[in-house]
Design a protein that fits this description.
alpha+beta; 5-stranded mixed β-barrel; OB fold (Dihydrolipoamide Acetyltransferase, E2P); elongated
């Protein structure tokens, strides 16, 4: 009776583990670019990128207080109160909400903004 019970429990544990193993994506299947959405205070602005200190995380795996270098492209949109703003409005000390993509290549992580909304 004990043997039968042990076999039954083992089969149940194996049956429960198989779906979890089948649904876990392999490293090759994971997308290389994922989205992020954060709010933070700009600490540095230079040509083609800016740095901010993260204050809130809406999407992504970032921690509050993290320093984040965000790259800009020609298609990056700058907004203030839902209306177009200028990149020249972006200065150290300004609070912004940034949405974009995070791309991983080996150990290097690259954040690229699609939208930068100036808040304060």
């Amino acid at each position: 009776m004990r043997k039968l019970l042990a076999v039954g429990v083992t089969m149940l544990l194996v049956a429960a583990a198989v779906p979890a193993l089948a649904t876990t994506p392999t490293k090759a299947e994971r997308p290389s670019a994922v989205s992020f959405d954060v709010q933070g205070r700009v600490t540095e602005v230079t040509q083609g990128w800016f740095q901010l200190s993260v204050e809130r995380v809406f999407r992504g795996r970032l921690a509050k207080g993290a320093k984040l270098r965000v790259n800009e492209t020609a298609s990056t949109r700058f907004l203030r109160a839902g209306k177009p703003a200028s990149r020249s409005d972006l200065k150290a000390g300004v609070v912004v909400r940034v949405a974009g993509t995070r791309q991983v290549s080996g150990k290097q992580v690259k954040y690229t903004a699609s939208t930068v909304t100036l808040l304060k």
